[in-house]
Specification:
InterPro entries: RmlC-like_jellyroll (IPR014710), RmlC_Cupin_sf (IPR011051), UGlyAH_Cupin_dom (IPR008579). This is Cupin domain-containing protein. The protein has one domain: Jelly Rolls (Sandwich). Helix content is about 0%, strand content about 65%. The protein is built from no helices and twelve strands. It has a six-stranded antiparallel beta sheet with strand order 3-4-5-12-7-10, with no helix packed on it. A hairpin with a 4-residue loop joins strand 1 and strand 2. The chain starts with a strand and ends with a strand.
Length: about 130
């Protein structure tokens, strides 16, 4: 886990492999593993979901994804990717330096042609039961 102070959290996108966790999730009954992440923070000061971290992936091709934990905003740090909205079919191309945001549960397909790394924030203001 990152270094923690009472009100300050710190981590690095260059953490060693031991500091990363595989991103595993179930979507439409299918199990997926899509890159890995390191979390800087998991909860807001009032106990709500506030996940802040770095995600990286070198799995090329198409992968379905939906942020089920809350609304997500990310800054693409490295690489480029294509995100397709399942409901509308709209396609969005992102390059390093671009920022993207969408609402909780939005179904997408991510197409990677090169490895990527992003800094993300996932937030849901509803309090989480302990």
């Amino acid at each position: 886990m990152p270094d923690t102070f009472p009100d300050l959290f710190w981590t690095s996108a260059s953490n060693p492999a031991s500091g990363w966790t595989p991103l595993r999730y179930t979507l439409d009954g299918a199990e997926h593993e899509f890159g890995e992440y390191t979390l800087l923070r998991e909860r807001g000061s009032e106990g709500s979901v506030l996940q802040v971290g770095v995600w990286r992936c070198d799995k090329l091709g198409d992968t379905p994804f939906a942020s089920e934990d809350g609304d997500e905003t990310f800054l693409l740090l490295e690489g480029e990717l294509l995100i397709t909205e399942v409901a509308s079919g709209r396609r969005h191309h992102y390059r390093a330096g671009d920022i993207c945001t969408w609402t909780k549960g939005t179904r997408t397909v991510w197409t990677l042609t090169v490895p990527v790394r992003k800094m993300f924030v996932i937030a849901d203001p509803a309090p989480v039961s302990p």
